[in-house]
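W.,

You were right to be curious about this one. When I first looked at the sequence I had no strong expectations either way, so I just let the prediction run and decided to look at it fresh. Below is the sequence, 164 residues in total, followed by the output.
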Amino acid sequence: MVIEAIQKRRSMRMYKTDAVSEDVINEIIKAGQFAPTAHGTGAVEFLVITDAKMKKDIFDIVGQDYVTEAPVLIIPVATDATVLPVQDISVATQNMLLQATDLGLGSVWKHVVPEWAGKIKEMLSIPEGYHVINMVPIGLPNDPDVIEHADDDFKIEKIHREKW
């Protein structure tokens, strides 16, 4: 059930060095590709980074160690074919985060602020007309302190009906 992956999914910023296979990477990206997009454009594409030097160059821009420590970075990008690039990338990313969890991997949404996006796009030769708002580091989790969500975390009082 999807709720099981949702309960297990936590932001992971510590990874083992074990490689992630191409088949697993493709399964994660498949989940991203199957996400809905505005007007059905399918305007999200994915850039996979596994090269240590490339990850170090990205670290030099974003400044977080887990970018270099994760065996894989997936950068979802949206083309100008969509009218809602942030939403399309967000839905694709959530699907990938859940699929990574279901496959026993850790992941995290790493935001990319606008001033970093231009540098990242230039460095990775991402064409004009493509939008970058985040990246997804992925790998085997290496944080024993991460605790899954429990049913007690569900707060019924945060649901409002008809009016606030």
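Here's what jumped out at me. The chain has a mean pLDDT of 95. And, maybe more interesting for your project: DSSP finds six helices and six strands in the chain.

Coffee later to discuss?

I.
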